[in-house]
Amino acid sequence: MTHVYGPHIFHTSDERVWSFIQRFGRMRPYLHQVRAITKNAVFSLPVNLLTINQFFRRIMGPNEARAFVSSRAHAIENPQNFEEQALSMVGPELYAAFFRGYTRKQWGMEPTELPASILKRLPVRFNYDDRYFSHTHQAIPDQGYTKMVESILDAPGIQVRLKTSHESLNENFAHVFYTGPIDRYFNFAQGRLGYRTLDFEVFRTVGDFQGAAVINYCDEAVPFTRITEHKHFAPWDSQDMKETICYREFSRACGPEDIPYYPIRQAREEQMLDTYVERAHATKGVSFLGRLGSYRYLDMDVTIGEALDAAQEVLNCLAQLRPIPPFFVKP
Description:
Order of helices and strands: EHEEEHHHHEHEHEEEEEHEHH
Largest sheet: 7 strands, mixed
Number of helices: 10
CATH superfamily of the largest domain: NAD(P)-binding Rossmann-like Domain
Distance between the termini: 36 Å
């Protein structure tokens, strides 16, 4: 039940994906709520009406708060990077408190070097809704993700080989669905695409350490980005409440031997990525899928949805005696 690769909450409004995932284990309802520590105070995230009133020490209703934040926001019609997007959404005070330092720690670069799309995933709410996600279905597998994946793999015709790299195989396959890093498949011929990786500092203590599943540490002076306390992801679990397992999370540049977590998608890498994509499209007998294969930040439900699309396309090709296309990434 410990999320050893960082917190993963399943959330989706795609009924097809929700129906599919329930075939492989019971999903328990779980509403993710995140707290943030900045300037020696605790706030709720994403930024909502409570955050705004607490931060500015005001008592405002939704309409007044919307006008108040709008008056502080910068008039940037077409934000070109993360910082411009943040300034146009929440203004300089909230940006400096909640986003700037955390972003520099998480991505290891200036917010002006990051695409605006990263921030667009996070809402700003002018009510007291502090749910991190707003999707119809939000849940965590009753017995954890390991059991769920074991159930998915427990099907006729599936063979699992652990500690086996694709590059080490010398076999002829009718078709390969490759979900490793796209640049690794081509032996980094055009260079290495940028990723961030994570280090986790595990510590155990007694009782309840922080009272929440996740607390973000926004101040840049704090070296870690967040602390996760895993018992709060499974409040239904009859675990020993005397001990609690926590992870401090540190983000850094991904080296050749590290696990890649987040594709950075820097503007200066655009030509390199385009070349890899062109090579992927021209590679017969291989389809590139998933976060690493398509070099995109994808949530679990989107990844599953694209895998279902790919599977249906394969079935259509086989039924019509057409060759399987090499690349499934949507434009």
